[in-house]
Design goal:
With 717 residues, the chain is an all-beta fold. Helix content is 0%, strand content 40%. The chain is built from no helices and 61 strands. The strands form 11 sheets. The chain has a 17-stranded parallel beta sheet that branches. The relative contact order is 0.07.
């Protein structure tokens, strides 16, 4: 049976008074119940119903007629109606949201097309607004004089809460080596009914608590529609190759127990192909294994000491077969890429060294997305990249301080370590080193081009962890798109403009946890602008349909390494923590917990949520910059700078008794092994017995930048 969505409520009441403009004030020549702000000619349409506006005076901006409505700050609303005009794109409806005595934001329906009535509709969340204005709008510039616009059948209604009333879609588990993503649609699921998650290894008696699943209450369209009304979430820190059970419990509803096994790191090998130590040109792999027999292992000869030289060919290696492991190759001089993956799945790239790839055009601009490992396949899935060095590309990205030849853009373009364009997800990218020098910089460390939608990179059911990533003029990790059960942890990021590009998450949840960010820099010069830092996490997109997924930012650390040599800049770390990059950017459903957001200056933005998004929850963070967020944010946060002591393995953890020590929130499954009275804030737990991740360098010597007292901890209105 096909699943359906239903709501257990009577049809919503239309809040608009005189929505078809039948009541008319003849003395004032305007509709009753509406506020008219523009001096144009107004008349009713008695035969078909509606209001007609004739533009008789040139005015600045757009004309407006409006009504104001008190709203439920947590409510979801629908605005609908019909518009007609004798010029395309002349008229539309608009909503303005207000809270705290000021306008929060505004958005519009589509505009009229053709000469007939156009039905338009806009759904939106109140998002903490106290009231909204619904406006009829039209152009009234010189070109519009003499034109007519008409409006009718206006409806504004609060939508009932989303309840899934279809047949149950049983729990589904998608495991990786160390994580598992969960999907469940129980009948009666709704935002007010939590689904708890617990787990245990097979054979254990007791259950371990995990974080609850997140309910997706957004009415998604297109590729997101199947996930409307779905509970989703992840388990982390699981052992590879291990059988588990998970228990899902809907509040006041059914319980389900599901068995699953994490992926084994002992890959089953069907046969082994020995590759030459040295090779010139492009080597093509077109024979692979299968699920029953296992992988075909392509392994370099030992003791050869040579490398594969692409010798001007597009790539060193093309993999056009599935169930393949490539291990131990040294690849250099790919014309564009090191390795190209075709329409494949279940491919492992292991312990390879890839360098000196990438093309530069005649104008001196590096080709974008030339990569150590590249795929343009929309069928790509189940890929592992591990224990590889991807370094020193031949080409060089421009920075945000350099305009690209023949364009007006300064957006970086150039080589990347990993680019999976349009793939399906289920990637594990772990234990890799991505690095270069200041003359051969990456655009992003990894990502793709289509970041806004229900796919993107790494799309879904993916892990990116324990990598060292540096030398990027844009994002070290660009994790944008669906981000459905994506986990990003234990990565050390250095020498980049920004650490994590998470501009839009359409589905989620995505978990960013225990990542460390060191040096942040805009350009290779030494001017104050060149040495500017940017973000730990970049947020925001203008299209709301792609910004309603769930984001968790947990136990991350933004360091402040010492200043650049010869510079008066106080330190070299980030100058923003969680930042919406413009006042027009949107992203809902962010939860921030237990992060250390240490900025260069107290005037820098630790959190800059320009919309003061009602569904975003920032708390229990240690920070020294400014906060722009909804009222009540960081009520348990700590204003200050961290005091560290160095561990034997070169990490930094908080000095016992200092700010942020034993002051974090409990997050089941994410910080179970804390010591003391409560978890510490930041990426490293004091007295943790866990070893330093494989590719993390020693943390830089600690530095405490000055914090201006007049802005320390300020929460802007």
């Amino acid at each position: 049976m096909l699943s359906v969505l239903a709501v257990l409520c009577l049809p919503a009441e239309n809040m608009v008074k005189n929505g078809n403009f039948n009541d008319w004030d003849d003395a004032q020549s305007r509709p009753v119940g509406w506020t008219v702000r523009s001096p144009q000619d107004y008349s009713p349409l008695p035969q078909e119903g509606g209001l007609q506006v004739k533009v008789v005076k040139e005015q600045g901006g757009y004309g407006e007629v409006l009504q104001r409505f008190e709203v439920n700050p947590r409510g979801t609303y629908r605005l609908s109606g019909a518009i007609r005009a004798d010029r395309d794109d002349l008229a539309f409806f608009q909503v303005k949201r207000y809270g705290g005595g000021k306008e929060l934001n505004r958005f519009a329906t589509s505009r009229n097309k053709g000469g007939d009535w156009c039905e338009v509709e806009k759904n939106f969340e109140a998002g903490g607004a106290e009231f909204v204005e619904v406006l009829l709008r039209w152009q009234q510039n010189e070109a519009a004089v003499g034109a007519r616009a008409a409006f009718r059948n206006l409806q504004f209604e609060e939508l009932p809460p989303l309840v899934y009333e279809g047949e149950e879609v049983p729990p589904r588990v998608v495991p990786t080596f160390n994580s598992a993503g969960f999907y469940w649609k129980p009948t009666g699921g709704t935002e007010s009914r939590a689904v708890s998650l617990s787990y245990r290894k097979k054979g254990e008696a007791g259950w371990r608590e995990a974080m609850p699943l997140w309910f997706d209450a957004t009415r998604h369209a297109d590729a997101g529609e199947p996930h409307t009304g779905e509970y989703r979430g992840s388990l982390v820190y699981l052992d590879a190759g291990t059988e588990y059970e998970a228990r899902l419990q809907l509040q006041d509803g059914p319980e389900r127990v599901v068995a699953f096994a994490t992926q084994s790191e002992n890959f089953k090998i069907a046969r082994t192909v020995r590759l030459p130590a040295a090779y010139e040109g492009t080597y093509v792999i077109d024979a692979g294994g299968n699920p029953d027999e296992g992988y075909v292992l392509y392994e370099a000869e030992t003791g050869g000491g040579g490398f594969w030289d692409a010798a001007g060919e597009s790539a060193n290696l093309e993999i056009n077969a599935s169930w393949v492991i490539v291990r131990g190759l040294t690849l250099k001089n790919g014309g564009r890429h090191g390795i190209i993956l075709g329409d494949v799945d279940h491919v492992v790239v292991d312990r390879c060294d890839i360098s000196h790839w990438g093309e530069t055009g005649p104008d001196g601009q590096a080709r974008n997305f030339n990569s150590a490992i590249f795929s343009a396949s929309k069928l790509l899935h189940s890929i592992v990249v591990q224990h590889c060095d991807m370094h020193d590309p031949r080409s060089d990205s421009n920075s945000w301080a350099e305009q690209r030849p023949g364009t007006r853009s300064k957006h970086p373009e150039g080589p990347q370590a990993i680019s999976f364009m349009g793939g399906q997800g289920r990637y594990v990218i772990r234990f890799n080193r991505i690095y270069s020098d200041m003359d051969h910089m990456f655009n992003d460390g990894m990502g793709e081009s289509k970041n806004f939608g229900f796919a993107g990179f790494p799309n879904r059911d993916s892990d990116i962890h324990d990598n060292f990533v540096s030398h990027c003029w844009d994002d070290a990790l660009e994790v944008e798109g669906a981000n459905m059960n994506v986990r990003v942890w234990n990565n050390y990021i250095d020498m980049s403009l920004g650490a994590i590009g998470g501009a839009a998450t359409s589905l989620g949840p995505v978990y960013y946890f225990r990542n460390v960010y060191a040096v942040s820099r805009k350009h290779s010069g030494m001017s104050a602008n060149d040495l500017r830092g940017h973000y730990l996490l970049k947020i925001g997109n203008e299209r709301p349909q792609y910004t309603r997924g769930k984001i968790f930012l947990l136990h991350n650390t933004a360091l402040q390494p010492p200043s650049f040599e010869g510079s008066s800049v106080p330190s070299s770390g980030a100058q923003s923590g969680i930042v919406y990059t413009s006042s027009k950017k949107l992203q809902e459903n962010i939860t921030s917990r237990n992060n250390i957001l240490q900025m260069r200056y107290g005037k820098d933005w630790a959190i800059r949520d320009t919309q003061k998004t009602f569904s975003c929850d920032y708390d229990f963070d240690l920070y020294n910059g400014r906060i722009m967020a909804r009222e009540g944010a960081e009520s348990n946060g700590i204003v200050g700078v961290p005091l560290y002591e160095r561990t034997a393995d070169g990490r930094l953890w908080l000095v016992p008794g200092s700010a942020g020590h034993d002051a974090g929130a409990r997050l089941p499954n994410f910080n179970d092994n804390f010591s003391g009275d409560a978890p510490d804030m930041g990426a490293v737990e004091t007295y943790s017995q866990e070893a330093k991740p494989l590719h993390w360098p020693d943390f830089p010597e600690n530095y405490y930048p000055p914090v201006e007292p007049e802005v320390e901890g300020a929460v802007l209105p």
